[in-house]
Amino acid sequence: MKNILVIGAAGQIGSELVPALRSKYGKNNVVAADLNTEINADILQIGPFYKLNVLDTNSILKVIKEHQIDTIYNLVALLSARGEAEPQLSWQINMGGLVNLLEISREQNCAIFTPSSIGAFGPSTPKDKTPQDTIQRPNTIYGVTKVAGELLCDYYYKRFGVDARGVRYPGIISNVTAPGGGTTDYAVHIYYEALKYEKFSCFLSENTSLDMMYMPDAVRAAIEVMEADPAKLIHRNCFNVTAMNFTPKEIALEIKKYIPNFTIAYDVDPIRQAIADSWPNSMDDSAAREQWGWKHEYDLKSMTKDMLDVLQNKL
Question: I want to staple 112 with a disulfide (CB 3.0 to 4.6 A). Which of 72, 126, 127, 156 is the partner?
Fold first, then answer.
């Protein structure tokens, strides 16, 4: 039985990953940790929770030893748009936290999952069906930390034998947590605004095409890559994974099938549009499919129906 620590548990992925892990491995075998204590009851009350700073080595070590942790999910990061507003803080948290957890994993013989992102690519990356192995020259601090993190995880595996794994996520859409400052967050906001006001003002242009993924698929990818047979993993970490691809115009048309009066306008934010334009139009995730059987379940149609059903009840 695994003993798991999820640090960054209050974030967009952690809020849904923790319950999924507890359902699979048992509530007392999955420890949630975050600086934010104002989080959902499933994390605070159903299973152990600690208030932890990813840069506080001693406190993390104490929890790891107390609960005999063998697997760490590192979900702490400042996302793309917020990172551009606070680049120094982004480096401190994204890289400082990762180095800290890799060192702890080395010392305590833990496996570690650290997600990368479509943001690890840049303007010179091939735009369509971006390969698993390709040029990575991002022009955001978030992207820089993700590329550096990928390389550091590979280094710790090759140099110290740390079982470091991860995936490169596209934009992630959730019906549980509010967006956290990412460039693809419009694809979460749009559902809330459609239900509340039947209109939405989008900060990206109507034909901005990006890969996306519904949170149930994102959670499953994080669990499955950590359970994969290591003998079959050529890349070990930063696997491209994706599920669907659409533009703001296309998601709006899908929503209109359920909310006929819904309208969308475009008030383009130059900073976030520039970030989106620097990313691939689509990613090739064949390496993940071949090496550990990755397969998405949700497309735009099925996700939209589920999002609207869930949010209708929630709102």
Answer: 72
Question: What is the number of domains present in the chain?
Answer: 2
Q: Are residues 25 and 50 in the same domain?
A: yes
Tokens (6 digits) for 286: 């064949």
Whole-model pTM? Answer: 0.92
Range of the domain at 271: 174-212+245-280+298-314
The catalytic residue among 50, 142, 156, 186 is 142
Name the H helices within the chain.
14-25, 41-44, 57-66, 80-85, 87-108, 141-160, 186-197, 215-227, 248-256, 270-278, 286-292, 300-314
**pLDDT, one tens digit for every residue, the chain (315 residues):** 689 999 999 888 998 999 999 999 999 999 999 988 776 666 666 889 999 999 999 999 999 999 999 999 999 988 777 778 889 999 999 999 999 999 999 999 999 999 999 999 999 999 999 999 999 999 999 999 999 999 999 999 999 999 999 999 999 999 887 666 677 889 999 999 999 999 999 999 999 999 999 999 999 999 999 999 999 999 988 999 999 999 999 999 999 999 999 999 999 999 889 988 988 999 999 999 999 999 999 999 999 999 999 999 888
Does residue 142 have an active-site annotation?
A: yes
CATH of the domain at 121: 3.40.50.720
Shared domain for 13 and 153, answered yes or no, is yes
Instruction: Please state, in angstroms and rounded to a whole number, the distance separating the CA atoms of residues 94 and 8.
Output: 11
